[in-house]
Write a sequence for this structure.
């Protein structure tokens, strides 16, 4: 490819403040916020209005965001974490709110075409309430992080192949303001939460709750290929466990709140599938151990052939992740161990949900590698 | 009062193991079907992406 073509900057336009507002809730994200704001400035459609919501920060998040040209507001008396911070920021937009709002995590970097593609989708279809980002992991620094990266690639593959968006991701998603207003108006009556709130303060996974709320209000959602965002990967098994317990429990709590309906039936079925899968694998392991102990263990060709279908599926679905992703998938055993770790987190979440116990919010401080994106 | 003798316990264990084997086999076939469907979907998607429109 000629050098001139390779280095040619993409065509850019400025998205006016009355078209779009970007809201970035941030709690002690001084290490990551610059990278997030730099990614916004590299968009093919550069947003003019960027609001960083400094939520109970004790570091330099607000100062660094302001130094990067963002408008910084501080939350007042917020005790409802991210949901509370977002509610305050959305309320501050008031009646002059633009037709579209991009909600972006402070440790998430969006690809250059994200905003342009999301705006095009929302403008083209009035029934669309949200455009979800397709998240991929940052550069993996360990096998554990590569396993998470593989999982995210598969999630993206599944969305592309089926066109179904299960959750409008909290990492980076653009919303139609009219859809958010619908949700706020329905809170306290047909939707859980406090009237006037966009986000349910009681939800520990506010993105999956908002997804259910939007679907209940009849809004559609998509996740286009161009809307890719990069998010952090958990550095340790303990961090991963805490993150997943929160995600699983958040969804279980949301489903209990909403009950069975046309919208939630698929989600209930997904949870049931996970549970039955866990019980079946436990049974398989028990039967295998017993048959070995009894000296009756034997491997049959049919089951080996079926095993090859699973291996093929693992490799095919992770193909866009590159050679390291494919090699790890082909090794099989690491991904089985990873799946079992996630299953343990699911069982932990089920137990907490049944006991109606709370779970901790897992905030991982951005490591040095995550802030390598050059600052302006 | 209603204690199982060794024969009854053995029959119960065998029946349970047979049921568990059948369940695991059935579930594995079901999930393998889902995996094959997933492969077909991804292959179809790649074909659509690669074909000139």
């Amino acid at each position: 490819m000629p050098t001139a073509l390779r280095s040619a900057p993409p065509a850019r336009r400025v998205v006016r403040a009355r078209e779009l507002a970007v809201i970035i809730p941030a709690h002690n994200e001084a290490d990551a916020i610059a990278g997030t704001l730099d990614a916004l400035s590299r968009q093919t459609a550069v947003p003019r209005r960027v609001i960083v919501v400094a939520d109970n920060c004790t570091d330099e998040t607000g100062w660094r965001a302001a130094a990067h040209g963002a408008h910084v507001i501080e939350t007042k008396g917020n005790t409802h974490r991210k949901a509370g911070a977002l509610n305050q920021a959305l309320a501050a937009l008031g009646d002059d709110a633009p037709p579209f709002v991009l909600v972006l995590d402070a440790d998430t970097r969006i690809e250059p075409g994200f905003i342009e593609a999301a705006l095009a989708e929302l403008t083209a279809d009035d029934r669309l309430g949200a455009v979800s980002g397709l998240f991929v992991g940052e550069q993996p620094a360990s096998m554990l992080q590569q396993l998470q990266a593989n999982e995210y690639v598969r999630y993206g593959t599944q969305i592309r192949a089926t066109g179904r968006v299960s959750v409008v991701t909290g990492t980076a998603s653009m919303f139609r303001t009219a859809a958010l207003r619908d949700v706020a108006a329905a809170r306290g009556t047909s939707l859980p939460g406090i009237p006037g709130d966009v986000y349910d303060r009681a939800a520990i996974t506010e993105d999956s709750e908002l997804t259910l709320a939007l679907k209940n209000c009849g809004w559609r959602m998509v996740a286009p290929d161009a809307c890719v965002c990069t998010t952090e990967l958990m550095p340790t098994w303990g961090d991963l466990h805490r993150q997943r317990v929160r995600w699983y429990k958040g969804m279980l709590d949301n489903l209990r709140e909403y009950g069975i309906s046309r919208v939630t039936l698929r989600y209930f079925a997904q949870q049931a599938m996970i549970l039955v899968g866990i019980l079946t694998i436990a049974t398989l392991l028990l039967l295998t151990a017993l048959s070995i102990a009894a000296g009756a263990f034997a491997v049959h060709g049919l089951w080996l052939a079926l095993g090859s279908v699973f291996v093929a599926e693992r490799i095919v679905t992770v193909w866009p992740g590159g050679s390291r992703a494919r090699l790890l998938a082909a090794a099989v055993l690491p991904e089985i161990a990873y799946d079992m770790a996630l299953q343990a987190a699911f069982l932990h979440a089920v137990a907490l949900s049944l006991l109606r116990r709370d779970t901790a919010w897992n905030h991982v401080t951005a490591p040095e590698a995550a802030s390598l994106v050059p600052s302006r | 009062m209603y204690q199982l003798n060794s024969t009854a316990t053995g029959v119960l264990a065998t029946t349970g193991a047979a049921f568990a084997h059948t369940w695991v086999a059935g579930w594995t076939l079901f999930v393998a079907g889902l995996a094959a469907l997933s492969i077909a979907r991804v292959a179809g998607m790649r074909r659509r992406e690669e074909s000139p429109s």
Remarks:
- Helices of chain B lie at 6-50.
